Amino acid sequence: MDPLSRSHAAAIDQLQRGLADVVVDSLFESDPGFAERYGPGGRRIWRTEVTQRLAHLAEAVACGRPGLFVQHAAWAAEALRARSVPDADIDAHLAQLAATASVEFPADVAAAAMPCIDAGRVASRTPTPSCGLLDTEGSDSTLARLYLLHVLQRDKDEAATLVLEALRGGMPLADVHERVVAPALAEIGRMWHMQEASIADEHFCTAATRMIVGQLRAAAQPMARKPDGRRALCFAVGGDMHDIGLRMVADLLELDGWTVEYLGANVPAGEIVMSIEDFADDPRRSIDLAVASAATTLSIRPLMDLVAALRSSEVARLTPILVGGGPFAADLGLAAVVGADAGARSLRDAVAAAERLVPASASRQPR
User: Which of these three, 175, 203, 221, is where a domain ends?
Assistant: First the structure.
């Protein structure tokens, strides 16, 4: 973690609201057509967009990974195109962001931020074909599409039956999660992003899947290894409300012999440190591994803060940290940047990384 990069990101945070206003005002003044195309609420709409660009820019600058902003800019451009926003307007708002930032940012902050903005602007100009589950082939894809169809039709019982039968038919839980449930969830997110599914669709599918993952966990219990004494603390960092992927990882760890303390979403760093310190006083509950989830780019700095808090504790600093989530699937080197001991690209990768960090010992007895 580079303190100077964090300082640059903090400067962007401080300027974010005022800078968004300047960008939008300049955008509408330079092209009166914006007011005509987007109506009375146009400035609010574009202010929200620019604020999002700045938030993601700050995270990319904080960890020195311009690719994070490039991915965000390209993804945001696809969402805007799906909402019939002309390419010229997409490019114009990024061009105005670049022009304003080059003037309003302090020189050192601008030097760190401008390469991100420029690369993001280039990436946003090239439409990326939207490839979803319907475009893929194979038996796993068929199962994932059927699962997706059931939950989109609000038939969570049929969705549950589908994956439970796959599990009972011999498909390992890791495959059910990684090849069926996770791709279906990703597709639901893509469909919402591209306005092919409503917010209600996305919320129902997420809630149904959370329930179904619990059913899968219960059904897989007879296949679990005997607890071997290793204990993992699983949580999503503060501000991150995504926890289904984390729940899947926790369930796979339990199948592999771990005992899991599952804390769920949005856990403040201080609570994680206290938990590890408190558990350390009881040999039966001491934590061998901290498993942290950061599902989106906007969770990178909270994750950095968590790592720093753990490393500053005389007790918790001894606990290895495994991180995962969307940003780490795209950039595994990011794990080292945030100070973690390992990162995971997938559910299976998380279990394998946990084994490398804390190997099971044949002689070790459960606490």
Answer: 221
